[in-house]
Design goal:
- The complex is a heterodimer of chains A (721) and B (161).
- Chain A is an alpha/beta fold.
- Among the domains of chain A are: 92 residues, Ubiquitin-like (UB roll) (Roll); 209 residues, 3-Layer(aba) Sandwich (Rossmann fold), CATH 3.40.50; 148 residues, 3-Layer(aba) Sandwich (Dimethylsulfoxide Reductase, domain 2).
- In chain A, the strands form seven sheets. Chain A has a seven-stranded mixed β-sheet with strand order 14-13-24-23-22-15-16. A five-stranded mixed β-sheet of chain A has the order 2-1-5-3-4, covered by helices on one side. In chain A, strands 19-18-17-20-21 form a five-stranded parallel β-sheet, with helices on both faces.
- In chain A, helix 7 packs across helix 20 and helix 11 crosses helix 13.
- Chain B has a domain of 111 residues: Alpha-Beta Plaits, CATH 3.30.70.3270.
- Chain B has a three-stranded antiparallel β-sheet with strand order 2-3-5.
- In chain B, a hairpin with a 5-residue loop joins strand 2 and strand 3.
- Chain B is elongated, with a radius of gyration of 25 Å.
- The termini of chain B are far apart.
- Classes of the chains: A alpha/beta (721), B alpha+beta (161).
């Protein structure tokens, strides 16, 4: 027994337990069940439901287990008559005003109140007055309300103030007339707000799109990974008749705790959009005609082999979505490299490619998500963090709540619900300049001389202001520091320079660099070789055309995989390229106007919600999912299609297993020794005046989200906030 | 012992006993009826063809709680539901496979709104396999047709529930 432990007796058995914990945490660990409503392990303790009352010897009253710290010699009886009586009485009070509408309540079957009423409820009600009713608020298109069912546990309120950071729901009124409400009529718009659906122990807050459709006992539960951002959120898909009915979080404390973003929860709706493709289409005499998979494979092979035979592989180009699974990326990259095609890229959100040679082996966070909260200083550069990666924003908020200083350099003031130390707001062009000034400040603090190769650049910049100096000081003086390089910076016209500055700053202040990436599997795209400057596992290769060059030129054959022109930052260029390229092969989930007009072969592919594969998230964690049962019936799996294509072209299929064996050590090695290069990018002539990404619409990231009806009816999408 | 049996054999006692039973039945009231012209009486608890009932104002009772399909041991009931325009929970399809149904009556017992009931109808037929699926419309029509009779039966039985 260490100093930290005390001996307590629960139900006659002596345990030695951690003295800093509450009784309910101890019993949960020991597997002794105490009923509860308001207690949630990720939220603060409210002790207002009184369901967890237990008898503690030498105490006059029964005590709430969730708010009773353990102490030495404590004797607890969870099963004694006085515990049971207290719990039954609490239940009787809760049931006084709870409506008996379980048959029409969506929570029925998974309701904590319903379950506990079986064990602790009395058969008869002694209450014969009128039950109370409460008005329902309209909380927007995602959460439905039936406030009469509310038992005032305030989990949703505490979630708002502690996890989301903005208290969208609050308790108003006193005593009997207290109710959960938004007070001033408004919708719930936080990007994590869907989690209050899972938190609510009764049916007061429920999933609106799912409302009244299915009962929980009809659904199968399948583990999966959310494909909408680079975090790799763990989810459960609830499925009936091979159709996804809803998505709930799968608790993973090192990635997403028990939370998922709204787009992970409601995004799947897009795959049931009416414009889903149901078979390959081939353009004959100007019209798209339905064809078989075999014919389309043959035709694609003909197109490619004729170009390959005439040695004009450089006339072939491929743009790949960063959100497709690792297996598809592997097959696609291998197939094209076996044919000698070098023009392949997935970076459709990037404008500045001058730093390609300085690229890390793959963009990664260099830290576990759950360790972000231990950072002392975090600098976020060019990122609409809450919208880009809601869960990383959550972890950063956690750090801020623990007292870390959080700094921002961004092109507009964005709303964050945690204390911010410094916020440098500049216009888009001056982001680079500001980071340069920060580097300058860091050099003067660390008293090291500025190396020759950057002296020119830095000397051209204005002197750092007090704010810059403060941030630099905070970075240099603290041990655990993190620089987060956001998606807006990645889409910045000076991205290469920004990153070089960040690399230098990281070395000066010995900070970690966390790079966010677009899509769910950009890490996989880098590793499998869906980039023009490297092949598989970061082997050097001959330089091909990058995404911007591919989108801005004509090709004999243009392959688009899993993306639509709207996904691309340079949409107009890409549409022009699709128009003027000789042959366009589009692998697409949905019908698309541009493809309908100009594509020559359209191949329907499965979304990752319906296929087997894996994603590598930005911490380098390989996470597999197997959703093959969700196939629309006449679909061929994407892997099968690509494998057939490789087989028919006469080359042998590369082994994915062998690749996987090399993959894990490779990722480990590159994360442990991130080799950031402190060179500046070779200056090139003026980049085209392309519009950088200024605003980040979190529900317009991929073809699936764009078609998700619930998300498209949110304020964020309608744009009236 | 052997002698006793011999006497029993010779006097035809067993034969006479059996004939007496026949004779008794010959004069007693007949239990068979001329089906289908004449029908035997049915208990109000008789479990026949399933039907869906309505409220007096014509609104369907079913609220799509799916307890009947959950309790059904033969998995004969398939329900799809959604929120109707007026905000109430209603079924979009309610199908019973008449071949799967074993007339156990669990669904009727599970129903919180007395929507699904078992009528007294035990004689019905279909000419094609597909017709074994009874849709929501068919079930509601059955309910409407036998409304009075079913209600009367349920009322008779209600004192025992």
């Amino acid at each position: 027994m260490t100093d930290n432990e005390v001996k307590i007796t629960i139900d006659g058995v002596v345990y030695s337990v951690d003295k800093n914990k509450m009784l309910i945490e101890i019993t949960d660990e020991l597997g002794i069940y105490i009923p509860r409503f308001c207690y949630h392990e990720k939220l603060s303790i409210a002790a207002n439901c009184r369901m967890c009352l237990v008898e503690v010897e030498n105490s006059n009253n029964t005590l709430p287990a969730c708010a009773t710290p353990v102490s030495d010699g404590m004797v607890v009886n969870t099963q004694s008559t006085s515990s049971k009586t207290a719990q039954e009485s609490t239940m009787e009070f809760l049931l006084i005003n709870h409506p008996l509408d379980c048959p029409i309540c969506d929570q029925g079957g998974e309701c904590e109140l319903q379950d506990l009423a079986y064990s602790y409820g009395k058969n008869n009600s002694r209450f014969d007055l009128l039950k109370q009713t409460k008005p329902n608020d309209d909380l927007g298109p995602l959460v439905s309300t039936d406030m009469t069912r509310c038992i005032m546990c305030t989990r949703c309120v505490r979630f708002g103030s502690e996890v989301a950071g903005i208290q969208e729901l609050g308790t108003i009124g006193r005593g009997e007339s207290s109710t959960i409400s938004t007070f001033v009529e408004q919708t719930v718009d936080h990007e994590l707000s869907g989690n209050i659906i899972d938190l609510c122990p009764v049916g007061a807050l429920n999933n609106k799109p799912y409302r009244y459709t299915d009962r929980t006992w009809e659904l199968d539960q399948i583990k999966s990974i959310s494909p909408h951002d680079c975090v790799g959120t763990n989810i459960y898909m609830h499925v009936k008749n091979n159709k996804i009915k809803r998505i709930v979080p799968l608790q993973n404390d090192s990635i997403n705790e028990s939370w998922i973003a709204d787009r992970d929860r409601f995004g799947f709706d897009g795959i049931y959009s009416s414009d889903r493709l149901d078979g390959p289409l081939i353009r004959t005499n100007g019209d798209l005609v339905k064809a078989s998979h075999e014919d389309s494979i043959k035709l694609i092979n003909e197109h490619i082999s004729s170009l390959v035979n005439s040695n004009s592989q450089d006339k072939i180009a491929a743009l790949v979505s960063p959100s497709i699974s690792l297996n598809e990326q592997f097959l696609l990259a291998n197939y094209l490299s076996l044919q000698g095609v070098k023009n392949i890229d997935h970076r459709i959100h990037q404008i500045d490619f001058t730093g390609d040679t300085l690229d890390p082996l793959f963009p990664h966070l260099n830290i576990n998500l759950s360790d972000i909260q231990n950072m002392k200083t975090i600098l976020v550069i060019g990122s609409d963090l809450r919208k880009e990666t809601p869960l990383i924003a959550h972890w950063v908020k956690r750090a801020a709540d623990k007292g870390s200083s959080i700094h921002f350099i961004d092109n507009s003031i964005r709303e964050y619900h945690f204390p911010i130390s410094d916020y440098i707001m500049t216009d888009n062009d001056s982001i680079t300049e500001n980071i340069g000034m920060l580097v300058k400040a860091a050099f003067s603090i660390s008293d090291s001389s500025i190396p020759n190769h950057i002296e020119d650049n830095l000397s051209r910049l204005p002197e750092p202001t007090r704010t810059h100096k403060q941030i630099a000081l905070s970075l240099c003086n603290n041990d655990e520091t993190l620089l987060i390089n956001g998606l807006l910076a990645r889409s910045h016209p000076d991205f290469a320079l920004i990153r070089s500055y960040i690399n230098i700053l990281s070395e000066l202040s010995s900070s970690r660099i966390g790079e966010l990436s677009h899509g769910a599997n950009a890490v996989g795209a880098y590793i499998t070789g869906c980039i023009p400057h490297r092949s598989q596992l970061a082997e050097p290769s001959e330089q091909g055309l990058n995404a911007l060059q591919i989108a801005s030129s004509n090709h004999d054959l243009l392959i688009l995989y899993g993306l639509e022109s709207k996904d691309c930052l340079y949409e107009t260029n890409l549409v022009e390229s699709i128009k003027s390229s000789k042959t366009v092969i589009a692998f697409s989930y949905f019908e698309d106007e541009v493809f309908n007009k100009y594509a020559d072969i359209i191949i329907p592919i499965n979304t990752t919600y319906e296929s087997k594969g894996s994603f590598i998230n930005l911490t380098g964690t390989l996470q597999e999912f197997n959703n093959e049962m969700m196939h629309p019936h006449d679909y061929l799996s994407n892997e099968k299609f690509l494998s057939d294509l490789i087989n028919i072209s006469g080359t042998s299929l590369p082994s994915f297993e062998d690749f996987l064996k090399q993959l894990i050590p490779f990722i480990q090695e590159s994360i442990n020794n991130p080799n950031y290069i402190n060179e500046l990018p070779i200056e090139i002539t003026e980049t085209e005046p392309l519009n950088a990404l200024n605003e980040f619409n979190m529900y317009n990231l991929d073809p699936i989200l764009r078609r998700s009806k619930p998300l498209q009816s949110t304020k964020e999408s309608l744009g009236d906030n | 012992m052997r002698l006793f049996r011999l006497i029993k054999k010779l006097t035809l006692i067993d034969f006479i006993k059996g004939s007496l039973v026949t004779l008794k039945a010959f004069f007693s009231r007949k239990v068979t009826v001329q089906y289908p012209e004449v029908k035997t009486p049915l208990s109000p608890r008789f479990r026949g063809k399933l039907a869906l009932m309505r409220y007096d104002n014509g609104e369907e009772r079913c609220i799509a709680c799916k307890l009947c399909s959950a309790v059904c041991p033969a998995q004969a009931i398939t329900i799809e539901s959604e929120e109707r325009d007026d905000g109430t929970r209603r079924t979009t399809s309610f199908e019973i496979d008449a071949f799967k149904c074993i007339y156990c009556g669990f669904c009727e017992e599970a129903c919180p709104v007395d929507s699904i009931v078992e009528t007294n109808i035990f004689e019905y037929h279909m000419t094609e396999n597909q017709q074994r699926i009874q849709t929501k419309e068919m079930l509601l029509a059955t309910g409407d047709k036998y409304r009075e009779q079913t209600n009367a039966n349920k009322k008779k039985d209600s004192t025992y529930k």
